[in-house]
């Protein structure tokens, strides 16, 4: 059974393994100090939030998210990072993490939860198509380098 709870101080090592795997999947380099900084921000709050999915007490999945203002509604939640260890996939961890973020979004009186993924991330999109609606938007990023 999957248990979802906020990240705790003693999750640091397991969180970093999963965070690094997530960044590797998206071919994004982050210096060691970057992981230290993100962990500090997740633990301090209140702008970033993190949850862990646990299977038999072991952290097997993580999600990072944030709430922000929105021009046309009271606000929105952006689910920025979601990753489940390959060995633990198929047990419902990703769905449980998404549903927990959705619940927190609703509890804040917000009606928009959204996230991005790569177009070719077929495995994740199989789940996403079950729990959310693809509305056809494409993301562009302006490069400052």
Automatic annotation (TrEMBL):
Domain (N-acetyltransferase) spans 2-145
The UniProt entry, under SUPFAM superfamilies, shows: Acyl-CoA N-acyltransferases (Nat)
Per UniProt, which keywords does this protein have? Acyltransferase, Transferase
Q: Which Pfam families match?
A: Acetyltransf_1 (PF00583)
- Gene Ontology molecular function: acyltransferase activity, transferring groups other than amino-acyl groups
Q: Which InterPro entries match?
A: Acyl_CoA_acyltransferase (IPR016181), Bact_Acetyltransf (IPR050832), GNAT_dom (IPR000182)
Among PANTHER family, the record links this protein to: AMINOALKYLPHOSPHONATE N-ACETYLTRANSFERASE-RELATED-RELATED
UniProt name for this protein:
Acetyltransferase (GNAT) family protein
Taxonomic lineage of the native organism: Bacteria, Bacillati, Actinomycetota, Actinomycetes, Pseudonocardiales
């Amino acid at each position: 059974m999957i248990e979802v709870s906020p990240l705790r101080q003693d999750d640091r090592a397991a969180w970093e393994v999963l965070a690094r795997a997530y960044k590797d999947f998206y071919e994004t380099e982050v210096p060691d100090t970057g992981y230290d900084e993100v962990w500090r921000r997740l633990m301090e709050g209140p702008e970033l939030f993190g949850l862990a999915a646990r299977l038999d007490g072991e952290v097997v999945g993580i999600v990072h998210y944030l709430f922000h203002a929105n021009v046309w509604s009271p606000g929105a939640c952006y689910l920025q990072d979601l990753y489940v260890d390959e060995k633990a996939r198929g047990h419902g961890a990703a769905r449980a993490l998404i549903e927990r973020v959705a619940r927190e979004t609703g509890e804040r009186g917000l009606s928009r939860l959204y996230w991005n993924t790569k177009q070719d991330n077929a495995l994740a999109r199989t789940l996403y198509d079950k729990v959310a609606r693809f509305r056809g938007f494409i993301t562009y990023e302006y490069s400052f380098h």
